[in-house]
Design brief:
The chain is 30% helix and 22% strand. It contains 14 helices and 21 strands. It has helices at 14-23, 39-49, 75-81, 88-101, 109-124, 203-213, 228-235, 244-252, 331-350, 380-391, 413-423, 426-429, 478-487, 510-524, and strands at 27-30, 54-57, 67-69, 128-129, 138-141, 163-164, 168-172, 179-183, 185-190, 193-197, 218-224, 257-260, 267-269, 274-288, 302-314, 320-321, 354-358, 368-373, 400-405, 430-437, 450-457.
Length: 525
């Protein structure tokens, strides 16, 4: 659970996390005037691509609010937001969450203690109510609502307007009252209205459909400038019967402090920098988009639900927290790397043969998955792929699943390419599912919202999967390898092999390839 070396304050609010980054030399303050229209995102993009620090723009043209961006631009900073120092801690958190995912009677005293410890975490994680919340220090209602005062970004030249990207979008099920917290893009439409872009499978969209069936408006709140840990919790698509607030409390090791909204029956994190309160009238929609998206292209224009903002509350001297999408690397891709680690133990519990899995950043964080299995019987690779697609909601939109043996390092593209090249017969080992529900932002689909999926069985073939003897894999005796280890310094080679080699040495120049493809597309246009 959270590392005790990370300050308690850093887990409490956005300002504490910014302080932590500054103390550790990972924050740069920009005092020169910067335009939130195109310029700010372009600066942040260059810094992020270079692995640079988080940025706090203190002089944003058109707004009194400073803008924090790139706070989660490296895996290191994502870990700090979770109160952790090492990536392995994410998997240990995943193991604890897996016990809540599918609880079963403990098999022994040790497992009973472990399960009891997780239940204690749940008790500690319960949210509580803050009666004097900082987010209510300033209140604007009715005609005083002015979204133009917020330093909303327009990241790309072809974008249709100014957007909110890291707001927690909060709704409640109109029947059960169960809250849903998601991270969805919102586009400003006027001084007091925005459209919200959410996929039909998401909680907010389900709540709107229920409200429409009941003839009611859907209440909605957007909490901006929360601690990044809450963004991680809201972005975690794990189908357990827990609210995102409880989930965030388990992440943090302490309950989230909530505040009741002023004009709607919803709760928001009390430390939020800015909160927008409003309603959606079912059927009320406006054109949303286009916007540069994580696919690396502009998305289309879609009619999206219109949110009428009736109240804005905020802290004194609020800080605006944001990010932007585009071809990786971007902050959403860094979040996905951390979530990948958390998912792994949960997937192992649901699909026991999975040893490890990886969602490469270049695969747009969820479009391509590589799974390593402990293969024991024919057809197991196909079963593992089918189980993966149905394991978590996010994997509904994974186009490609590559299944390899557990001996393959799935985080090394050279080994994965070898497995595909050496172990796959396309007429036997490719499995295609046609006309499945799909991401409307994926323009490669023949029909938007409907597409195919491909599983590649790159495992060693066994039993009836093969009709002739399979070659013996090359290997050297373990004693020879051990002898070489012992003699490595004697041979004058102690400095070789300590670090991973530069991929460019082996012909991997992915960025150059992508730049050439982008150039060709521009030339054709």
């Amino acid at each position: 659970m959270p590392n005790k070396g990370i300050s308690q304050r850093s887990r409490r609010d956005l300002r504490g996390f910014i302080d932590l980054l500054e103390q550790r030399g990972r924050l740069r303050r920009i005092s020169a005037p910067v335009d939130p229209d195109l310029e700010l995102a372009a600066i942040a993009d260059r810094v992020l691509a270079a692995g640079g620090p988080a940025l706090l723009f203190e002089n944003v043209i058109g707004s009194t609010m400073p803008v924090a961006v790139n706070l989660l631009g490296t895996q290191e900073r994502v870990l700090w937001s979770m109160g952790m120092e090492q990536p392995e801690e994410l998997e240990r958190l995943g193991e604890r969450l897996a016990l809540l995912q599918q609880p079963r009677p403990p098999k022994g005293a040790r497992e009973a203690l472990r399960f009891g410890s997780v239940l204690l975490d749940v008790l500690k994680a319960r949210p509580d109510l803050d009666l004097t919340p900082p987010c209510h220090q300033q209140v604007f209602k009715g005609e005083a609502v002015n979204l133009d005062a917020l330093p909303l970004l327009r990241p790309w030249p072809g974008d249709g307007g100014r957007i909110i990207t890291l707001g927690l979008v909060i709704t409640k099920d109109p029947e059960t009252g169960t809250p849903n917290v998601g991270v969805y893009r919102l586009q400003q439409q006027s001084a007091n209205s925005m459209t919200v872009h959410w996929l039909s499978v998401r909680g907010g969209a389900r709540h709107l459909r229920k409200a429409a069936a009941m003839g009611k408006k859907l209440e909605i709140a957007i909490a901006i400038g929360v601690h990044p840990l809450l963004v991680m919790a809201a972005a975690t698509p794990i189908p357990v019967q827990l609210s995102e607030w409880l989930f965030a409390g388990i992440y943090a090791g302490e309950g989230v402090r909530l505040a009741k909204c002023k004009t709607v029956n919803l709760e928001v994190p009390s430390h939020s920098e800015v909160v927008l309160e409003g309603t959606i009238t079912p059927g009320s929609e406006l054109a949303d988009g286009p916007f540069g998206d994580h696919m690396g292209f502009y998305g289309g224009v879609e009619d999206s639900p219109l949110v009428q903002i009736q109240c804005v509350t905020q802290r004194r001297d609020p800080v605006y927290f944001t990010t932007f999408s585009g071809r990786p690397p971007k902050e959403d891709a860094m979040l996905a790397i951390a979530l990948n680690r958390i998912y792994t133990p949960i997937l192992r519990q649901q699909i026991p043969e999975i040893v490890d899995f990886f969602l490469p950043m270049e695969g747009l964080s969820y479009k391509l998955a590589v799974i390593a299995i402990d293969k024991a019987y024919p057809g197991q690779a196909k079963r593992a792929a089918m189980a993966f697609w149905s394991a978590l909601p996010q994997f509904t939109y994974t186009k490609f699943v590559v299944v390899v043996d557990k001996s393959i390092n799935i985080r090394d593209p050279r080994q994965v390419i070898w497995a595909i090249s050496a172990q796959v017969d396309p007429q036997r080992d490719l499995f295609v599912l046609e006309n499945t529900p799909f991401d409307t932002l994926d323009f490669a689909s023949e029909r938007l919202g409907l597409g195919g999926r491909l599983a590649i069985d790159a495992t060693t073939k066994i039993g009836p999967e093969k009709r002739h003897p399979w070659g013996e894999p090359l290997s050297r005796p373990a004693e020879l390898e051990a002898r070489l280890d012992a003699r490595w310094a004697e041979l004058g080679l102690a400095d070789i092999g300590k670090d991973e080699p530069d991929p460019a040495l082996f012909g991997y120049t992915l960025e150059h390839v992508l730049e050439r493809l982008a150039g060709r597309a521009t030339a054709k246009a």
